[in-house]
Amino acid sequence: MPQRRTTIDAIRGLCLINIFVNHIQDGAISVVSPSRLGFSDSADIFVLLSGISIALAASQASRRRLPDIVAHLWRRAARIYAFELVIVFATLGLLAAILALRGVTGVHAQETGLLREHGFPNLLGHALTLRQTVGYSSVLRLYVALMLIAPILLRLAGWRFWAPLPPALLLWIAAGHFHLVLSNSLTGAPFFLTILPWTLIFAVGITIGQGLVNGVALPRPRWLTGLALGYLVAYLVLAVVVVRLWPAAADWAATRNDAFWLGASKTYQSPLRILHVLALAYLVMALPRAPLIRLLHQVPRDHLLTRLGRRSLPVFTAGAIGAMLASEALDLAARSWNAAWFPLLLLEVGMIALFIGIALRIGGRPGRTRPSRPAQPEGRASRRDPQVPTPDRPALGLRERAALA
Predict the structure, then answer these.
(1) Residue 183: phi, psi to the nearest 5?
(2) Which DSSP string do the residues of 1-49 spell out, in sequence order?
(3) What is the pLDDT of residues 37-54, one digit of tens each?
């Protein structure tokens, strides 16, 4: 299934660039990022793709013993935690340098204040034990938890491809309705990304991936396609037009992250966010020949985006650290240049280009591979499944399949 892997990698690469842009605090380019075009953003898409990838990579799970699957995914969790440590140490080092040079000021004033109040050893201990968020460490902490529960969801999917959904749905409802999220140990603020509410979108990804492996046909009624497209367009109308004309809509938009059922909370994964990312995913799968979507399905394996997506873990780690440096540099430049917008914009563009260049170095050199083919228009998984070797594609072992996840 080379075209599916390439499509997933391309979307991941696009998300990684978007995440870096949005992590630059007070940046101008984030105002026009795709994250402002819907209820969901790159984080939701990434978790969904992670579930799909893991299901594809573990497509022979029913032929393997459960302990083998558990050991493999928990090794994956340990690797993610190792990159989490890199982010924590690098972030605390940067904060210590900022505190020594500038004091508690600038875009990182809250974090440097936390460092001054609690001290480096105490803050480090809380961060290493995943009790306190430092910088952008909350993202990988979520993935560590998802890898730990993934064997259970995969086992359920191996029995019935839809089986991960009912327990995940119950967890999601309970977590959102009763606000069952963990809080930071030092600040008391809720974790931005926490396991219980985010289990549902991960389980949806596993269900989609297992459905592809099983050859389950994607339903394509016109009314469903129209409903998904209408939902995406409705948000644009709300964000661009309605909030400017209706004060009640503007008030809702300002507080939408505080409520679960009728809001658009990222912390609690509100229904509006879930529906938005599902509408996006459905259109990408159901309309592989649509103008823009076709480009994602036909991206070659040596394209910039696929190279970034294949190495998403180290690329994200570099971006999480680089975004803090970029934010600090932009803040210092704004003070020195009296907030002159054009030089600041050029500086921001340069830092984004530098990140992409570094990420491409991490992603490796492009290989001589043929362009991928568009996904199956019938919405059915190819009979040449990942586990079936062919003359032009040798069989993949479990370790090689892990690259998908």
Answers:
(1) -115, 155
(2) -HHHHHHHHHHHHHHHHHHHHHHSTT-SGGGGSGGGGSS--HHHHHHHH
(3) 778 889 999 999 999 999
Query: What ranges do the domains of the chain cover?
Result: 2-404
Instruction: Name beta bridge partners: 400.
Output: none
Q: How far apart are CA 34 and CA 351, in angstroms?
A: 19
| Cβ neighbours of 36 (radius 10 Å) | 14
| Its pTM surpasses 0.70 | yes
Cα dihedral 160→163→165→167 (10° resolution): -170
Can you tell me the distance from the alpha carbon of 269 to that of 40, in angstroms, rounded to the nearest whole number?
A: 9
- Tell me, what's the pLDDT at 255? 86
Q: What's the CA gap between 131 and 134, in Å, rounded?
A: 10
d(CA 285, CA 250): 33
As a whole number of angstroms, the distance between CA 9 and CA 307 comes to: 7
Task: Express each pLDDT in 220-263 by its tens digit.
Answer: 999 999 999 999 999 889 888 898 889 998 888 888 888 899 88
Main-chain dihedrals φ then ψ at residue 104, nearest 5 degrees? -85, 85
Alpha carbon distance 27, 15 (integer Å): 17
Burial of 294 (0-12, 13-18, 19+ CB in 10 A): middle
Angle between helices 312-336 and 138-159 (to 10 degrees): 150
